[in-house]
Amino acid sequence: MVGKIAFLPGDGVGREVAGAARKVLVAAAQKYGVSLEFNECVFGGAAIDECGDPLPEQTKTVCLEADAVLLGAVGGPKWDGATIRPEQGLLGLRSALDVYANLRPIQVAKGMEGFSPLKKEIATDVDLLIVRELTGGLYFGKREEGMDTARDECLYTRAEVTRVARIAFEAARKRDGRVTSVDKANVLATSRLWRNAVNELHEKDYADVKLDHMLVDAMSMKLIQAPSSFDVVLTENLFGDILSDEASVLSGSIGLAPSASLGDGRRGLYEPIHGSAPDIAGQGKANPVGMLLSAAMMMRFSLDQAEIASCIENAISRALAAGRGTGDIGGKDSCMSLTDYICETL
Ligand SMILES: NC(=O)c1ccc[n+]([C@@H]2O[C@H](COP(=O)([O-])OP(=O)(O)OC[C@H]3O[C@@H](n4cnc5c(N)ncnc54)[C@H](O)[C@@H]3O)[C@@H](O)[C@H]2O)c1
Ligand SMILES: CC(C)[C@H](C(=O)O)[C@@H](O)C(=O)O
Ligand SMILES: [Mg+2]
Fold it and tell me: Domain Isopropylmalate dehydrogenase-like spans what residues (predicted)?
């Protein structure tokens, strides 16, 4: 047995793509003669319906005892914002696991430029990694919500910035050696602290990595205009959420984008960057690729199975190169038929 996986399908298309990931993982594990233990738990809206709590104690315990947590997506109009609150739900889970660094790779691989809405010469060679701070900032500050006034506090400590920046610099060393830190330091005090802490760590431990800073508004333009000029993009929680949805479009669809959320230990939380997509849920239209790539990241980072991870990634690339795909990238497959094809070609 190589690993205990807390398996949280969640809601909407989360359930469809998580089912696809389980199928591919089981097939890949079988091929390599290893076994995986899946402990399925209710989470999100499904958990509210079952026991009135989006993150039941039992689910939290299974996640804290697992080697990795594999999550589909949560939410939907039926539950409003109740599936994601900081003290419960999705934000509660991220904070309980202390996974402060959310890695969101975006690639337009050679031969895949056709999926991108960008001109071929701009889409070529896009390969960037967004490192998003995940357990601080506006998402976790104090809130006041009155009829006519509301307030969301944005708070960052130097230690919170330094630990996620370290992950970004380490990742850059294994890639092209460049970090672009994104903030709004011309306006926000938290962004000035952010820039200062990133510079301090850079000077102290990572002078070999090329560092530059960019304001988030300019970054959202440059990401479309010159996406291949970026290697690692480091940013705070809210900016990272927005920029990663934007960046996912470069590769053709949000349904292609995976993520790994990591802390100080080996345990991680793996989920595609998209949500429960109520507009297409239950229709077999969801693209499973972002979820499958998240499962591959799980095998590599938390379960130490790099070979299985590569096997899954290669099968996905081959399927896309063969013209297979769901409707969001112009294909004719359903979530299930694409998943079955990937399983067969592992
Ligand atoms: N990590 C998460 O669990 C997560 C992430 C984002 C949003 N949400 C929640 O999901 C719900 C819906 O949010 P939303 O509609 O703003 O964002 P969404 O990401 O669910 O959907 C945005 C758009 O992308 C499309 N899309 C998403 N995933 C797709 C896939 N796999 N294949 C093809 N197309 C896909 C949808 O059809 C929709 O048009 C909300 O309740 C939100 O809070 C959860
Ligand atoms: C659902 C929401 C809280 C979540 C976030 O903003 O982190 C989602 O958009 C994501 O990107 O995982
Ligand atoms: Mg998001």
Answer: 4-342
Q: Is 15 in the pocket of ligand 1 (CB under 6 A)?
A: no
User: What distance in Å separates the CA atoms of residue 224 and residue 44, rounded to the nearest whole number?
Assistant: 33
Alpha helices in 143-215 (DSSP H): 158-174, 189-205
Report the binding-site residues for NAD(+): 275-287
Question: Which of 204, 235, 257 represents a domain boundary (last residue)?
Answer: 257
pLDDT band at 196 (very low <50, low <70, confident <90, very high): very high
Q: How far is the C-alpha of 158 from the C-alpha of 81, rounded, in Å?
A: 30
- Probe residue for ligand 2, chosen from 74, 130, 241 as the CB with the greatest number of ligand atoms within 8 Å: 241
- Do the bridges between strand 126-133 and strand 101-108 make them parallel or antiparallel, or are there none, so unpaired? antiparallel
Residues 105, 89, single domain; the answer is: no
74 lines ligand 1 (CB under 6 A): yes
Per-residue model confidence (pLDDT) at position 189: 98
Do 107 and 168 belong together in one domain?
A: yes
Give the tens place of pLDDT for each residue, 121-133.
788 789 999 999 9
299 CA to centre of ligand 3 in angstroms: 23
Which residue minimizes the CA distance to atom 9 of ligand 2? 241
Binding-site residues for substrate: 94, 104, 132, 217
Q: How many domains does the chain have?
A: 2
Mutate to test the pocket of ligand 2, among 13, 84, 274 (most ligand atoms within 8 A of CB): 84
ipTM: 0.99
CATH of the domain at 76: 3.40.718.10
pTM of the predicted model over 0.90: yes
pLDDT of 222 strictly over 90: yes
d(CA 313, ligand 1 centre) in Å: 23
Task: Check residue 69 and give its pLDDT.
Answer: 98
Instruction: Identify the residue whose tokens are 């939290």.
Output: 60
Average pLDDT over residues 187-198: 98
At which of 193, 223, 257 does a domain end? 257
Structural domain boundaries enclosing 154: 100-257
DSSP 95-114: HHHT--EEEEEEEE-TT-GG
Domain match, 174 and 279 both? no
Q: Are residues 209 and 80 in the same domain?
A: no
Residue type, 302: S
Q: Is the CB of 273 under 6 A from ligand 2?
A: yes
